[in-house]
Every structure is written in structure tokens, then in C-alpha cells.
């Protein structure tokens, strides 16, 4: 694994990342406890890194999905549940498919972020007894059953 302190030098804002960052900046103006944008950028960097080669059926990069989930979570928590409007929660949303669909592991997330984020991501992960499960396999299994 690369030196985890290098991510800031490599971080690039794409249209999807910009949408989340801009939304967090706006929501930070309406809450008592603003989120640290740098922590969100870190989550964005690793979300894009781990999902870089994956594409959605629409042709969009797969990482657009966890970014949209993070936006929805931020939009809900800031006004409705401000105690949950935390960088921790946004990063869990960003990383929610990382263990399931990429080479990323619980240990990787623990090292890069912390054990609490890794544990939360793991609780959101669907793992088969003999390996990771893909969304395509889930859909195929539902069609069969």
C-alpha cells in the first residue's frame, strides 16, 4: 500500500467529487458543527482509487454511486439529524462498497482512516463465505430465486 500521507498530493477533483465537496461546504454553513472538508477529500480520493477501473452499466464511473450516496446522507443528516452529520458518516457512505467490490480490506480502511470507519463499512458489506459478492451476482441470484 502506498504511503497514506501521499493522498493529498495525488487528490484531484472530478465533477462527482466537486458536487459532494460543494454540497458539504454549503451544508457546513447551516449546521453548528461543520465537517472537515479535508477528511471528505481523503474519503473521495480512496473511493476513486479503489473503484477506478469499475464502470456502471450507464457508462459512468462506479465511484459516482458511493459519492451520490454520501450526498444523500449529508443532505438528510445536516438538517434532520445534525448529530449524525460527521465526516465519519460521510466517509462510511463513500467507502460502503469498497470491501465488497474492490481489493480494499478492513485492515486497509483501518490503517487509512480508523477502526470505527472500517468496522462500519464492514457491517455494510455482503460477503459470501467463500469470497466477495458482486452486485451482478446478487441480481443474478434474485432472478434465479
UniProtKB/TrEMBL annotation:
<keyword id="KW-0378">Hydrolase</keyword>
<dbReference type="Pfam" id="PF13328">
    <property type="entry name" value="HD_4"/>
</dbReference>
<protein>
    <recommendedName>
        <fullName>GTP diphosphokinase</fullName>
        <ecNumber>2.7.6.5</ecNumber>
    </recommendedName>
</protein>
<dbReference type="GO" id="GO:0042594">
    <property type="term" value="P:response to starvation"/>
</dbReference>
<dbReference type="GO" id="GO:0005886">
    <property type="term" value="C:plasma membrane"/>
</dbReference>
<dbReference type="GO" id="GO:0008728">
    <property type="term" value="F:GTP diphosphokinase activity"/>
</dbReference>
<dbReference type="GO" id="GO:0015969">
    <property type="term" value="P:guanosine tetraphosphate metabolic process"/>
</dbReference>
<dbReference type="GO" id="GO:0008893">
    <property type="term" value="F:guanosine-3',5'-bis(diphosphate) 3'-diphosphatase activity"/>
</dbReference>
